[in-house]
What we know:
Elements: H1 7-28, H2 35-42, H3 46-52, H4 56-77, H5 85-99, H6 102-114, H7 119-145, H8 155-174, H9 179-194
Amino acid sequence: MCPKVTTQYKSEVRERIIESAVECFAKTGFDRTRMDDIANLSDVSKGTLYLYFKSKEDLFYGICQSSLKKVKEQLTSMFITKENLVSDAERFYDYFQKGVNRSRNIVILEMSVEATRNPRLRKVLMQHQVNRHQVISEFIELQIRKGFARKDIDKDAIASGLIGLYEGLVLDKVTGTDDSTNKKAWSDTIRAIFA
């Protein structure tokens, strides 16, 4: 009789595969990474890997979902009082610049470029952008309802602007811009929007 595989075990294996994919994609690129490479690094059989993810594009979507889940968790735990809005925004920035490793930033940039040549990857990236925009837009709507932001702002435009700013700062960081400069740009923008 086979032992029962728990939901927690499946979740841990899935996350291990995702982290291995991040490492492989960051090191060798999307095109040159093979599913075998990811299976070996995550210490699972190729068959097991395919039970969780059918393709590299599927894996990239898993990376996107994992990142979005972390964003939601951070947004839920911060931005509780108006007085702490800017300091919470700085902590949010710090969390994602330190907690989300350099490899994830490189992978997102890699996938953005690769999506120009890969229609399946472009579809995954576009869906991720829609999902991410929705999460940020809902967060801004909540800040408006709490009185932390003006009622007359366009939450969708602000969401797009914040996402664009963050992505630009990620590009700056990957290419060597000093983190204190980026953090100031992030904090000053949040202050201008919400304070």
